Amino acid sequence: MNPIAIRLLNQQLTAPQFDSPSEVVSHMGAMQAQEYRMMRWAVAMRTRRPSHKAFKAAYDSGQIIRLHLMRGTWQLVTAKDYWTFLHLCAPKAIAVTKGWMASNKVSIPNEELLKVRDILEQTAAYMGSATKENFVQALAENDIRMDDHRLSYHIRMAEMSGTLCSGELHPTKATYTLSAKKVKKPTHIDRDEALMRFTRKYFQSRGPATLEDFVWWSGLNVSDCKRGIEMLGGWIHQETWQGRSFYLTDDCRTRGFRSGKYLLIPPYDEYLIAYKSRDVVLPVEHRHRAHNNSGIFQPIIAHNGIICGNWSPFKNECQAEFFDGREVTDSVMDAWNAYCRYRTK
Q1: Do residues 287 and 262 lie in contact, with contact meaning Cβ atoms separated by under 8 Å?
Q2: pLDDT tens across 2-33, in order?
Q3: Which residues contact 230 (CB under 8 A, 6 or more apart)?
Q4: 169 vs 56: CA distance, rounded Å
């Protein structure tokens, strides 16, 4: 087993199979969307023909939704998976968020929570796509003032309650709209079916991965993660690599890997953040160059799947710095030119 090559294929970073952004997000199940501008490249680079305009069209039309979901952090999901995964993940995510609030000495009484949520809901309904600044103004008109940190918690809780989700794509800042208006609600959500779908999508797109990887990524309890794997039955199996047991789907891709390729990967990308143990692709001695212990992830470069450098996404020229001091090659420039084309298409 070559876990690096298989991950590149399953994550659609090598020989991508999909044409549209919504197909990519559906395949991945949920994608980290912490960095508002770079989440677009994270999706687009996994399509056959990366296009910023195609991402915007899918996002604005509601095919792709951004919200706080797993682990209380930003995720992208498809409209089809939105209510199902929210139903599954929100209870644990809300508990995690309340824990953060307590550690930061932020207490929001239920009366305040409901009053503010009602104002946020009315503002989003009126504006169509409301910004945080719109919320601040609406709250001020109701004689409610709070710091940005507290307001962020209110917005996050409104997202995890199914009240708000992403509005239209803005160049630099998040917008919000009513979830009920943007995403059709299913008549029934069976938790076991939701858990099985969630588990299947993780391993079809991230395998080979361990149970610990899935627990970390999903934010669910260990018992839920084990049950999800058990419900997949014979569709998933285990293989051992360097003394560790990895799960793979029986139909996972093993052909299509092309050696020598460089990838310019955005910060918070699933290629790293989907796993608890990242040493499969990230040498331990270089871990601090990819992310710190506070959960801040950097733009990274991969060569043959191994993380080997950093790059600057918002410069006019290719700026790359490699951990071993290697020079920028034609292959690196090919990757940079592909990124530049994506921004204009």
Answers
A1: no
A2: 999 999 999 999 999 999 999 999 999 999 99
A3: none
A4: 6
Pairing of strands 176-178, 164-166: antiparallel
The number of domains in the chain is: 1
CATH number of 231's domain: 1.10.10.10
Query: Tokens 């910060």 identify what position?
Result: 267
* The token pair that represents 214 in the structure block: 């899935």
pTM of structure: 0.95
Which pLDDT tens digit goes with each residue over 151-210? 999 999 999 999 999 999 999 999 999 999 999 988 888 999 999 999 999 999 999 999
Cβ contact 196:228 at 8 Å: yes
Question: Going by DSSP bridges, is the β-strand pair 306-311/300-303 parallel, antiparallel, or unpaired?
Answer: antiparallel
The parent domain of residue 219 ranges over 191-249
pLDDT tens sequence across 297-326:
999 999 999 999 999 999 999 999 999 999
- What is the amino acid identity at position 214? F
Q: Give the residue carrying structure tokens 């996404």.
A: 313
Going 262 to 266 to 272 to 274, the CA torsion angle's sign is negative
Beta-strand relationship, 300-303 and 262-265: antiparallel
* Coil, helix or strand at residue 165: strand
Task: Decide if 218 is inside a domain.
Answer: yes
**141, two tokens:** 């008109």
Residue 209 lies in a domain: yes
Q: How distant, in Å, are the alpha carbons of 136, 158, 194, 201 from that of 150?
A: 11, 13, 32, 34
Count of alpha carbons within 13 Å of 129, Cβ hemisphere only?
Answer: 12
Residue 331 sits at φ, ψ, to 5 deg, of: -65, -35
CA neighbours within 13 Å on the CB side: how many for 210?
A: 15
Positive/negative CA dihedral, 300, 301, 305, 307: negative
